[in-house]
């Protein structure tokens, strides 16, 4: 078994976290990751509701026992009702990312949950440590959805060298080789996102799985086009990595206004809607159940680490 700070702290079998993907990671996905031995997280995006968090938390708990909730600090500053709903559901872990977690860490700890924060720079690391988080997640630019601009490997090395708290890794990790690599480097576990997006337990538009299975690792784009089209006021330092389509190609070239973007965006159409996915997309070949994906990643990582590192 792969034992790390993460597995010991949370009482789980595998150092794998199902990433809190907004619009894709609901209670079934989170619960199945936890049931497979990791810990799954709900993606509580800005447009979700406290009622959604309450309902999906119950599903996750019934399926897998432990679960987590991922929140965006910049959005909590406007309305913290999603945090209230998350803590009321008694999660094992809460991810406080994209902004200063300081106003919220104490409330997470008071609820008995572990507080982690995804970081994209050394400045983010220092801010998260000052806020008192239990661990940080070095999230590289290969990640799907909103992320920073530094690649996972250089960022992870920087963070591991500087951090005084446990470090996890995220971005471009979707096989046993990827998990083995970050564990061997010193990470305590990994956030897995895109590798789960073809699983039947995800939520989201019907075309998303087909788009992902067709995509190569060169088919993603780092963009704020979908935020502008959907009137999502993400801070400009975090763009989103998504699978390129006609919508991204047309509007990057034309430089349209936000009003024009909103008029042309259509979430029901694969060439007009958004499918956030990371650069690991080219390694997602089949629509496999979550439990199969998680167990195979862990099994392959353990085999590789045992063979090459004696771990």
TrEMBL record:
Entry superkingdom: Bacteria
Molecular function in Gene Ontology: dioxygenase activity; nitronate monooxygenase activity
Keywords, ordered alphabetically: Dioxygenase, Flavoprotein, FMN, Oxidoreductase
Gene3D superfamilies noted in UniProt: Aldolase class I
Protein name: 2-nitropropane dioxygenase
Source species of the chain: Hoyosella rhizosphaerae
